[in-house]
Design a protein that fits this description.
By secondary structure, the chain is an alpha/beta fold. 32% of the residues lie in helices and 19% in strands. It has ten helices and eight strands. Strands 1, 2, 3, 4, 5, 6, 7 and 8 form an eight-stranded mixed β-sheet that branches. α5 runs parallel beside α6. The protein is globular, with a radius of gyration of 17 Å. The protein starts with 26 loop residues before the first helix and ends in a 9-residue tail after the last strand.
Protein backbone atom coordinates (compact mmCIF):
# COMPACT_ATOMS: atom_id res chain seq x y z
CA UNK A 1 0.00 0.00 0.00
CA UNK A 2 1.17 3.47 -0.73
CA UNK A 3 1.15 6.43 1.61
CA UNK A 4 -2.44 6.85 2.88
CA UNK A 5 -1.95 10.58 3.21
CA UNK A 6 -1.27 12.73 0.14
CA UNK A 7 1.46 15.14 1.34
CA UNK A 8 -0.39 18.34 2.29
CA UNK A 9 0.79 21.88 1.94
CA UNK A 10 1.68 23.04 5.42
CA UNK A 11 -0.12 24.16 7.61
CA UNK A 12 -2.97 21.95 6.39
CA UNK A 13 -3.31 18.93 8.65
CA UNK A 14 -2.61 15.46 7.33
CA UNK A 15 -6.05 13.82 7.31
CA UNK A 16 -6.64 10.46 8.93
CA UNK A 17 -8.22 7.99 6.52
CA UNK A 18 -11.51 6.41 7.54
CA UNK A 19 -10.58 3.30 9.52
CA UNK A 20 -11.65 -0.13 8.39
CA UNK A 21 -13.02 -2.48 11.05
CA UNK A 22 -10.17 -4.11 12.95
CA UNK A 23 -11.25 -7.61 12.03
CA UNK A 24 -10.97 -6.74 8.34
CA UNK A 25 -7.37 -5.47 8.54
CA UNK A 26 -5.13 -7.19 6.02
CA UNK A 27 -2.45 -8.61 8.31
CA UNK A 28 -0.53 -9.89 5.28
CA UNK A 29 0.37 -6.29 4.53
CA UNK A 30 1.69 -5.89 8.09
CA UNK A 31 3.95 -8.88 7.61
CA UNK A 32 5.17 -7.52 4.29
CA UNK A 33 6.00 -4.20 5.93
CA UNK A 34 8.25 -6.02 8.37
CA UNK A 35 9.84 -7.91 5.49
CA UNK A 36 10.61 -4.62 3.74
CA UNK A 37 12.33 -3.23 6.80
CA UNK A 38 14.14 -6.48 7.50
CA UNK A 39 15.63 -6.16 4.00
CA UNK A 40 16.88 -2.61 4.46
CA UNK A 41 20.58 -1.92 4.10
CA UNK A 42 21.01 -0.96 7.76
CA UNK A 43 21.89 -4.33 9.33
CA UNK A 44 20.72 -3.64 12.89
CA UNK A 45 17.47 -1.98 11.80
CA UNK A 46 16.79 -4.96 9.56
CA UNK A 47 17.45 -7.38 12.39
CA UNK A 48 15.23 -5.47 14.82
CA UNK A 49 12.30 -5.81 12.43
CA UNK A 50 12.60 -9.59 12.40
CA UNK A 51 11.32 -9.65 16.01
CA UNK A 52 7.87 -11.17 16.44
CA UNK A 53 7.36 -10.55 20.19
CA UNK A 54 8.24 -8.04 22.89
CA UNK A 55 10.68 -10.45 24.53
CA UNK A 56 12.46 -11.17 21.25
CA UNK A 57 12.66 -7.45 20.51
CA UNK A 58 14.09 -6.75 23.98
CA UNK A 59 16.80 -9.38 23.47
CA UNK A 60 17.86 -7.84 20.15
CA UNK A 61 17.92 -4.34 21.61
CA UNK A 62 19.87 -5.47 24.68
CA UNK A 63 22.60 -6.63 22.32
CA UNK A 64 22.32 -3.63 20.00
CA UNK A 65 22.48 -1.18 22.95
CA UNK A 66 26.27 -1.51 23.21
CA UNK A 67 26.82 -0.04 19.75
CA UNK A 68 23.46 1.63 19.05
CA UNK A 69 24.56 5.25 18.95
CA UNK A 70 27.41 4.56 16.55
CA UNK A 71 25.06 2.80 14.12
CA UNK A 72 22.27 5.39 14.12
CA UNK A 73 23.92 8.63 13.06
CA UNK A 74 21.49 11.57 12.85
CA UNK A 75 22.40 12.21 9.19
CA UNK A 76 21.11 8.72 8.34
CA UNK A 77 18.31 8.18 10.89
CA UNK A 78 15.88 11.09 10.83
CA UNK A 79 12.92 9.76 12.85
CA UNK A 80 13.71 11.59 16.13
CA UNK A 81 14.64 14.86 14.44
CA UNK A 82 11.52 14.84 12.28
CA UNK A 83 9.30 14.40 15.33
CA UNK A 84 10.86 17.30 17.25
CA UNK A 85 10.79 19.52 14.15
CA UNK A 86 7.06 18.82 13.87
CA UNK A 87 6.45 19.76 17.52
CA UNK A 88 8.36 23.00 16.99
CA UNK A 89 6.75 23.90 13.66
CA UNK A 90 3.23 23.36 14.99
CA UNK A 91 4.13 25.03 18.32
CA UNK A 92 2.45 22.19 20.16
CA UNK A 93 4.36 22.75 23.41
CA UNK A 94 4.99 26.47 23.08
CA UNK A 95 4.24 28.99 25.80
CA UNK A 96 4.95 26.78 28.78
CA UNK A 97 7.18 27.67 31.72
CA UNK A 98 7.95 24.00 32.37
CA UNK A 99 7.28 20.84 30.37
CA UNK A 100 7.54 17.32 31.78
CA UNK A 101 8.15 14.87 28.92
CA UNK A 102 8.11 11.06 28.84
CA UNK A 103 10.24 9.41 26.14
CA UNK A 104 8.32 6.19 25.39
CA UNK A 105 10.64 3.44 24.16
CA UNK A 106 13.56 5.77 24.83
CA UNK A 107 16.32 3.39 23.73
CA UNK A 108 19.73 4.92 24.34
CA UNK A 109 18.33 8.44 24.23
CA UNK A 110 18.47 9.64 20.61
CA UNK A 111 14.99 11.16 20.77
CA UNK A 112 15.63 12.43 24.28
CA UNK A 113 18.75 14.20 23.07
CA UNK A 114 16.78 15.86 20.26
CA UNK A 115 14.09 16.95 22.73
CA UNK A 116 16.61 18.43 25.18
CA UNK A 117 18.67 20.17 22.50
CA UNK A 118 16.11 21.19 19.87
CA UNK A 119 12.63 21.54 21.42
CA UNK A 120 11.68 25.22 21.44
CA UNK A 121 9.20 27.29 23.42
CA UNK A 122 8.55 24.64 26.07
CA UNK A 123 10.31 26.41 28.94
CA UNK A 124 12.31 24.24 31.32
CA UNK A 125 12.10 20.67 30.05
CA UNK A 126 12.37 17.66 32.36
CA UNK A 127 12.68 14.27 30.73
CA UNK A 128 11.93 10.72 31.89
CA UNK A 129 12.24 7.56 29.84
CA UNK A 130 10.85 4.03 29.66
CA UNK A 131 11.93 1.09 27.55
CA UNK A 132 11.46 -2.67 27.26
CA UNK A 133 15.23 -3.25 27.08
CA UNK A 134 17.30 -3.00 30.25
CA UNK A 135 20.43 -2.71 28.13
CA UNK A 136 19.03 0.35 26.38
CA UNK A 137 18.05 1.94 29.70
CA UNK A 138 21.58 1.45 31.00
CA UNK A 139 22.97 3.31 28.00
CA UNK A 140 20.32 6.06 28.33
CA UNK A 141 21.31 6.61 31.96
CA UNK A 142 24.84 7.47 30.87
CA UNK A 143 23.55 10.42 28.83
CA UNK A 144 22.78 12.39 31.98
CA UNK A 145 19.64 14.18 30.75
CA UNK A 146 16.99 11.72 31.98
CA UNK A 147 15.42 11.93 35.42
CA UNK A 148 13.53 8.72 36.05
CA UNK A 149 14.18 5.73 33.81
CA UNK A 150 11.96 2.67 34.14
CA UNK A 151 11.47 -0.64 32.37
CA UNK A 152 8.09 -1.56 30.93
CA UNK A 153 6.40 -3.37 28.06
CA UNK A 154 3.93 -1.44 25.93
CA UNK A 155 0.62 -3.25 25.82
CA UNK A 156 0.92 -4.07 29.52
CA UNK A 157 0.39 -1.97 32.67
CA UNK A 158 3.24 0.49 33.23
CA UNK A 159 4.84 1.55 36.52
CA UNK A 160 3.69 5.17 36.44
CA UNK A 161 0.96 7.27 38.05
CA UNK A 162 -1.86 8.85 36.06
CA UNK A 163 -1.57 12.35 34.55
CA UNK A 164 2.11 12.89 35.27
CA UNK A 165 3.47 14.31 32.00
CA UNK A 166 2.77 17.33 29.82
CA UNK A 167 3.83 15.33 26.77
CA UNK A 168 4.79 11.83 25.70
CA UNK A 169 6.95 11.30 22.62
CA UNK A 170 8.00 8.12 20.87
CA UNK A 171 10.13 7.46 17.81
CA UNK A 172 10.41 4.16 15.93
CA UNK A 173 8.58 2.21 18.64
CA UNK A 174 4.96 1.65 17.62
CA UNK A 175 5.22 -1.02 14.95
CA UNK A 176 4.80 -4.83 14.71
CA UNK A 177 7.45 -6.71 16.70
CA UNK A 178 8.13 -3.63 18.80
CA UNK A 179 4.93 -2.34 20.42
CA UNK A 180 1.21 -2.84 19.77
CA UNK A 181 -1.30 -0.07 19.17
CA UNK A 182 -2.96 -1.00 22.47
CA UNK A 183 0.11 0.37 24.27
CA UNK A 184 -1.11 3.87 23.45
CA UNK A 185 -3.90 3.53 26.04
CA UNK A 186 -1.37 3.47 28.90
CA UNK A 187 0.53 6.35 27.29
CA UNK A 188 -2.69 8.39 27.28
CA UNK A 189 -3.19 7.55 30.95
CA UNK A 190 0.23 8.90 31.93
CA UNK A 191 -0.17 12.26 30.13
CA UNK A 192 -2.05 15.15 31.75
CA UNK A 193 -5.39 16.28 30.35
CA UNK A 194 -4.50 18.91 27.75
CA UNK A 195 -1.10 17.32 27.18
CA UNK A 196 0.36 16.09 23.89
CA UNK A 197 1.14 12.59 22.63
CA UNK A 198 3.34 12.43 19.53
CA UNK A 199 4.73 9.22 18.03
CA UNK A 200 5.99 8.03 14.67
CA UNK A 201 4.30 5.35 12.60
CA UNK A 202 5.42 3.88 9.30
CA UNK A 203 2.92 4.98 6.68
CA UNK A 204 2.66 1.84 4.56
CA UNK A 205 1.80 -0.05 7.75
CA UNK A 206 -1.09 2.19 8.76
CA UNK A 207 -4.07 0.93 6.75
CA UNK A 208 -3.23 -2.75 7.30
CA UNK A 209 -2.81 -2.42 11.07
CA UNK A 210 -5.00 -1.99 14.13
CA UNK A 211 -3.94 1.66 14.52
CA UNK A 212 -6.90 3.21 12.63
CA UNK A 213 -9.37 1.33 14.84
CA UNK A 214 -7.47 2.25 18.03
CA UNK A 215 -7.19 5.89 16.98
CA UNK A 216 -10.94 6.08 16.34
CA UNK A 217 -11.78 4.22 19.55
CA UNK A 218 -9.87 6.72 21.70
CA UNK A 219 -11.44 9.65 19.85
CA UNK A 220 -14.93 8.18 20.28
CA UNK A 221 -14.32 7.53 23.98
CA UNK A 222 -13.15 11.10 24.51
CA UNK A 223 -9.62 10.10 25.50
CA UNK A 224 -7.91 12.29 22.91
CA UNK A 225 -8.42 14.54 19.91
CA UNK A 226 -6.43 15.21 16.76
CA UNK A 227 -3.78 17.86 17.51
CA UNK A 228 -2.46 18.00 13.92
CA UNK A 229 -0.33 15.19 12.50
CA UNK A 230 2.95 15.82 10.70
CA UNK A 231 3.63 15.77 7.00
CA UNK A 232 5.15 12.45 5.83
CA UNK A 233 8.94 12.35 6.14
CA UNK A 234 11.76 9.84 5.57
CA UNK A 235 13.31 8.13 8.60
CA UNK A 236 16.01 6.45 6.51
CA UNK A 237 16.44 8.76 3.50
CA UNK A 238 18.09 7.05 0.57
CA UNK A 239 17.63 3.50 1.87
CA UNK A 240 16.13 1.60 -1.05
CA UNK A 241 15.43 -1.58 0.91
CA UNK A 242 13.13 0.22 3.33
CA UNK A 243 11.81 2.61 0.64
CA UNK A 244 13.14 5.52 2.76
CA UNK A 245 10.99 4.26 5.69
CA UNK A 246 8.36 6.99 5.35
CA UNK A 247 6.82 8.06 8.65
CA UNK A 248 4.12 10.30 10.01
CA UNK A 249 4.35 11.82 13.51
CA UNK A 250 0.83 11.20 14.78
CA UNK A 251 -0.12 13.85 17.31
CA UNK A 252 -2.98 13.89 19.82
CA UNK A 253 -4.18 16.10 22.67
CA UNK A 254 -5.40 14.22 25.75
CA UNK A 255 -8.99 15.02 26.82
CA UNK A 256 -9.42 12.43 29.60
CA UNK A 257 -7.27 9.74 31.20
CA UNK A 258 -8.13 6.06 30.81
CA UNK A 259 -8.42 4.05 34.01
CA UNK A 260 -5.27 2.51 35.42
CA UNK A 261 -5.17 -1.24 34.71
CA UNK A 262 -5.87 -3.53 37.64
CA UNK A 263 -2.76 -4.94 39.29
Amino acid sequence: AGCPFPPPKFPQRVPIPSPAPLAMADQTKVALTNDDLAACSHAWVGRSYTATSASESAAIYDEWAKVYDSTMEPDKYQAPLGLVRHLNKAQLLAGRETTAVLDVGCGTGLLGKAVVELLTGAGEVTLDGMDNSQGMLEQAAKKGFYGRLFQGTLGEALDCETGVYDAAVSSGVFTPGHAPASGLVEVARMVKVGGIICYTLKLDLYEASDYPALHKKLVDEGVWEDAGHSEPYAALPGDQGSKDCMLCAFTWRVKSNPAKPAA
